[in-house]
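S.,

As promised, the zinc ion run. Input:
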Amino acid sequence: MKLSMNEATALGCQSMSIEQDILLCEKYGFDMIEPRTMDRMRDYLETHKIEELDEFLKAHNVKPLAFNTLVFFNNRSPEGYQGVLDELKQMCEWGKVIGCNTVITVPTVDLKKVTRSEIHKSAIACLKEMGSIADNYGMRVSVEFIGHPAASINTFGEAYEIIQEVNRDNVGITLDCFHFHGMNSSIDDLSKADGKKIFIVHLNDTEDFQFGSLLDEDRLWPGTGCINLDEIFQTLKKIGWAQDAVSLELFRPEYYRMNPNDVYRVGKEKADAVIKRNFG
Ligand code: ZN
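Predicted complex:
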């Protein structure tokens, strides 16, 4: 099992950049990184070429796991959706250079008066097209449902139904443990799913606030909150998940006030404990 760091985890810490994140991955034993496309990569590419990022990753023996994040793909205006497709193509181009084969996409939030069937229909149509574009580059599209009422796809069950209907080998799901818990997704739904459709797993924990009220800032080190992580991982094992990598993804302001070295050190320790007891 490889351990990956999502750049959100030390996002607010002082003097961080994608280069710093890669160096800390190497220093603290994270095998992989999830580059943030909307800020860290954008900042880096203002003064560097994508080929330089590839060299930097290789020089420090860190591999890219997935691009974060292609936002708000469904139920968009024609112009908005065109923007999503343009961004997808850009990420696919980068992926070819740095050897990253997955783009994570998240559903639109705060839709007003849009029915569940309209959401379902749009999500399927968009993902079919996005999957076909990504396929031209040998890339995968991974849908991350967001465990909050404002998100248009907010449970595992809904996301899984959608990707089943999309029915493409290169379109699957990102299971973020925090989002799985956030809207009380059903472990029964997960146990009936095909593990091969789970492309990416985000590891974290949370404070025990009511379902539907949890915010990213409530995320905690894995194993220190109320999520039954062992149940999720044991279920993933049973359904044939590849058990290839998990990625630590937190957004906690309290951790942003720590030295980033400590964020990586503690993050590695806490993540390892959960991985070890579930995967040996
Ligand atoms: Zn996530």
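The two ends are 9 Å apart (CA to CA). Residues 63 and 165 are 31 Å apart (CA to CA).

- D.
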